[in-house]
Amino acid sequence: MVEIALRKEMIKLGHTDRSLARAVAAGVLGKPRRGAYVDGVVWRSLTKEDRYAVRVRAAIRQACTDAVASHVSSLPFVGGPMWDLPLDDVHLLRKDGKSGRHEAGIQQHRGAIMDGDIVEVGDIEVVAPMRATLEVATLATVEAGLVVLNYFLHRGDFTVEQSESGTNTGWIGGRPP
Q1: Please, are residues 70 and 93 in contact by the beta-carbon 8 Å criterion?
Q2: 28 vs 114, more confident
Q3: CA distances from 66 to 8, 19, 121, 165 (A)
Q4: Residues 152, 90: one domain?
């Protein structure tokens, strides 16, 4: 897992905004998003999808509300395919039920959370594969949505019947991938 240091943590260690900017320019640090830093060598070695996952984790750490990775942003953590999906914005589901908003590359969503909708993966919470599949279908192309649906069906996360009814949003048998 890529270690993320937030600006406030770096300042406490003695860095300044100027020293952080120089470190990013020199490639010593990578900057997945404003106010978040990672090792520069590690950052450059990551694939586009892995960089996106780091951005998601950074956004969750920086969120001013309790939120979980949702939509396409949950897929790297539940082992889902990222094929042809938009990776411009990080998608977060607010757990407080308040209105969502779009700001600085973060799309916060408001939505009802049912039992089994949220699972813990490592150090973050994300929506479960069934919910992720349904959410991806709302913002991706039909083809990309079908890739995600087909992947989770073949992996056994849910059945065709469950996907049609939207039931069992958690993993079958409670097993993570």
Answers
A1: yes
A2: 28
A3: 19, 31, 16, 28
A4: yes
